[in-house]
Design a protein that fits this description.
By secondary structure, this protein is α+β, with helices and mostly antiparallel strands. It has a single domain, classed as Alpha-Beta Plaits (2-Layer Sandwich). Helices cover about 35% and strands about 20% of the residues. The protein has three helices and three strands; from the N terminus they run H-E-H-E-E-H. It has a three-stranded antiparallel β-sheet. Helix 2 packs antiparallel against helix 3. The chain starts with about 20 loop residues before the first helix and ends with a helix.
Length: about 110
């Protein structure tokens, strides 16, 4: 059976989340971002960027993130929103903040 998403073989990622992902996964709207650090950047820089990003998009969300077991430079960021309306109200700000903060230190979003 061919993969349903992507153009290569299926790859499993085991993520060491910084806190339980249950609330984010159980939210009405959930966003997943896969981030890979650029050369010369660190997990600490990414943590600061994620903290800055999530503190600026309001409190109507749950955030968890962490590195993968398979690649120490690959991270998953999961944001759970209480409603589509709340997520939509933050969408433009979120996109701008991601572009301005995370893109500088990661290869992919």
């Amino acid at each position: 059976m061919a993969p349903a998403i992507g153009d290569g073989p299926f790859k499993m990622n085991h993520v060491y989340f910084n806190k339980s992902p249950t609330a984010a996964f159980g939210a009405l709207v959930t966003a997943f971002l896969v981030l890979t650090l650029k050369d010369g950047h660190s997990k600490d820089q990414l943590e600061k960027a994620i903290t800055a990003l999530t503190s600026q998009i309001g409190s109507e969300h749950t955030v968890t993130w962490g590195p993968t077991k398979e690649d120490v430079n690959k991270f998953f960021l999961v944001i759970g929103w209480k409603s589509l309306k709340v997520k939509a109200s933050c969408a433009i700000l979120l996109q701008q903040k991601i572009a301005n903060t995370l893109y500088r230190i990661t290869k992919t979003l």
